[in-house]
Protein 1
Amino acid sequence: MSKKILVLAGDGIGPEIVAEAIKVLDALQAEGAIDVTMEEALVGGAAYDDCGDPLPAATLEAAKASDAVLLGAVGGPKWEPLHFSKRPERGLLGLRAGLGLFANLRPAFLYPQLADASTLKSEVVSGLDIMIVRELTGGIYFGEPRGVETLESGERYGYNTLCYKESEVKRICRVAYDIAMKRGKRVCSVDKANVLEVTEMWREVAIETAADYPEIELSHMYVDNASMQLVRAPKQFDVMVTTNMFGDILSDCAAMLTGSIGMLPSASLNAEGQGMYEPIHGSAPDIAGRGIANPLATILSVAMMLRYSLDAGEAADRIEAAVSKVLDQGLRTGDIMSEGMRQVGTAEMGDAVVAALRA
Ligand code: NAI
Ligand code: MG
């Protein structure tokens, strides 16, 4: 049966990069490798301009009715003066909450062809391939109570609460272990069990849950050490699983090891396997409308979508191989350009991926 994809191009470079991702989906569809129907809707600043709401009810309904959502990016200086509740970014948060997307998959990989792009030595990062699994709907970003009060002394007192239910830890660990089973079967659970009771429980639950996965090699690391190890010797990691806040920080750190923000996809999944897929970068207002943005992060997000939500792992592998081939051909957008390579625009890069896919 045909799977439904909701396409949310968003703002800035969003429409430009999403157009290239759609070319790739169309090419796979034309040859019968996948069976999808695509529908478009408004989100972010584009939706605000249309109806005063960054996440119109119709968009959320359409997202709920789809198997997967492909998102470009939202936001830009035009909407910065708006109240927080109207900002384009609210659209994203609303989609995450509305779809119950509790598992954020943030791969950090570096195609060997781009090893020069990193600020780290190429032998440290070349061929890097880490998957960070971040809990996305719990932890200190959502815990109650929270707030800032003024004490009797007149001093301000601010607080947030780090809390997890056992079930929340279990389900995110399961996602990590399931993914690791399809990769190197090694998972490092990152916590601060020496200081925070919640994460001591996190570690216990991680161990208990792993009993169902005898083939998984589970290790544990305190978050401070994990951040050091990510920069010192990142290739020691396969899958990492961690809390919302630790994952927020570690995944951005891991992304920067690769030095190419225009190359990295992401996925956010719910319990039903429904997912939202988007590049990790933003709407890049500084280069929007010029046809020079790198569409590869979005194209690789499509690969993740096919693998994790649409049961089309073979097509996903082919997209990743096509991207690698295009890099072998020496094609580069401005953000990953280096000496001796051929600089191309957004559309030319998308066309090259489609050609490589067909070859
Ligand atoms: P950004 O990721 O949009 O841009 C950072 C730098 O990277 C810019 O110099 C940009 O030109 C470059 N860049 C990003 N993606 C690129 C691509 N595909 N190809 C070539 N170069 C690329 O982050 P920034 O500038 O902090 O935020 C811009 C807007 O995007 C803000 O309104 C922000 O709120 C929003 N944003 C949205 C996100 C989302 O939709 N998930 C995530 C991050 C930021
Ligand atoms: Mg972040």
Protein 2
Amino acid sequence: MQQQDEAHYVQHAAEGDIHILRLANPPVNTLRAALRAELVAGLNAAREAGAKAVVIVGTGRMFSAGAEMTEFGKPRVPPGLHDIAEEIARFPGPVVAGIHGGAYGGGLELALACHARVAAKGTKLALPEVKRGILPGGGGTQRMPRLIGPIPALRMIVSGEPVTAEEALKLGFVDEVAEGDIEAAAVAFARRALAEGHRFVLARDRTDKTAGADLAAFDAEVEALLRRSRGMLAPVNCAKSVRAALTEPFDQGLQTERALFNELVNSEQSLALRHIFFAEREAQKVPGVPPGTPTVKVAKAAVIGAGTMGGGIAMCFAAAGIPVTVVEADAEALQKGIERCAANWRRSRNAPPEEEIRRRLSLMTGTTDMAAVGDADLVIEAVFEDIGVKEKVFAELDRHARPGAILASNTSTLDIDRIARATRRPRDVLGMHFFSPANIMRLLEIVRGRETSPEAIATAMEVGKAIGKVPVVVGNCDGFVGNRMTGKRGPQIEKLLAEGCLPQDIDRVMESYGMAMGPLATGDLAGLDIGAAVRRARGTVAPIADALVAAGRYGQKTGKGWYRYDENRRRHPDPEVERIILETSQRLGITRRRISDEEILDRLLLPMVNEGARILEEGIATRASDIDVVFVHGFGWPAWRGGPMFWADRVGLKEVRDRLARYAAATNDPNLQPAPLIERLAAEGGSFAGLDRARSPAAAAG
Ligand code: NAD
């Protein structure tokens, strides 16, 4: 094979009369403008050189991760994907995509515009644009249905979920699954096609899968799919665009696709989703923990405590194939805990096959002997929330754990430094705060203590990702980031109820904002007695919530809390709750009034934003965008709303400051006094995003 030139983003090579164009924009070959231009030039050059076929492959990890997101929302620089597709169509012989690793979004659209696709075994292929609030705007919504039929295409595009090369072969948008070197396989495919004189029909010219499509069946499928994405615009436009592939000629369909894309690309929702996409990546950059920080390889883990959290945490390790020892104080609790893990797997929505459940259970070893942690590389403690108990457990871990093992606590509120001091190795101690249910919620707050080493943080992040979590490093304080912020919402909920709201009003507003579940229904799920115990310990009161607990209303576990629950666990407003609330208003001398939905939303979100600002001031969170990641992955905040700090930026911090001051005066809640950081940013005309940019290492270096 001979290298013909040294083009920057596309390498051009030839093997006889088959030319090879290699995408070379590390690390993931995003289709930046310069690459697109070189691809067009490469196709042209191949045609002029008399090439019989062209193979397009990716260098490095994958074929292509698609569009360069930093180009979104900026003026379009030609050539676009459509121009490349035109160039492919103009080429006299077959243009074959050789795909390995992954082809996502525009990367897959590029491949769909080719005459044929050869994919390496295990390659992932997806049109994930919907997850960024947009749609595949490079012809994907028009070509995919023509290749695989309307309903399979609709499902791929509306869900954004990947399929494997093997599935794509069955669906019909991959022509061959290859083993070994993808470039060699794609060249061999092209050579065979040439030898056989095979005539390929481009997707745009195919009608066999779309002609006479059953539109009623299609619309029924759309309705079923959209039910799951309440409030989101992108899935709606995705479906409309795929439908155009059934009712319009190809070129007109492309225009429809473009128009629907343009509606989305600068929408609030797409901005929010892109914000979260970048925020998740930013959160992986931790001050003082540079890339390449050595980590402890976690070949074996241990969990102390087999209760609600310990069991869920052990499930995460076993599901990821990491052996885990579960240590309990109580033999009966141990057995029950492990049985609960099995039961949880069996009744989960995507229950794994029985064989897989047995494999996972075989990775879990239960014991009541603390010495069993001796061969663990990471120990996570999840015993009762009691500092005395935790100190005792950590002193024991110090005796039994191997030197260099990482020791983590799942505490929600206790001081990590104090826990670390119970050992002689505080550098190896940190918090790993999982969210309930631990096997499902993706957020993992990693709590850095005063002495925690960079190696311990890097290990916790690495293992967190390995078990499917989204780790966010936070500082040590009561409640850390998420619970500390939601904690400030509680007093406003009490006040809203006393002033005129009912539980269903508050939950309705939050659920129509997009939360999976309103705060009061969530309280019923977690148990109202837990909050009451915390208030007792802190000497605070919540007259209405306390009255509910006094009336035996602990939430779902007693069949009644803020709501009454029927035998299907469906919630219903309960006259007894209304009576308790009205009596409390009267007792407090409050004349109830009608409260608007806007006010409800403000009074629930503003206290969290205000506390978020204090958290930033104190350095408990590194960036405002980290806080948004915490809420999306730990608190059911809809990603398409971008998180509380993003919300505040969109409202504008001056407006946020004014509203906070107004509600502070009206409700006499000192928590609502605008935080100094909000005062400062409001005065400067700044934003949380601007603060993040100013603080980021890249900005500092540049
Ligand atoms: P839990 O009461 O369900 O479980 C605690 C378990 O620890 C019990 O089974 C108990 O027998 C065992 N245990 C107590 N002392 C022990 C010891 N010395 N050695 C071994 N085992 C011992 O409690 P939980 O809800 O799982 O909470 C555990 C921890 O996780 C607490 O620190 C809590 O604050 C934290 N947490 C809880 C949640 C939640 O929503 N429940 C969320 C995040 C963090």
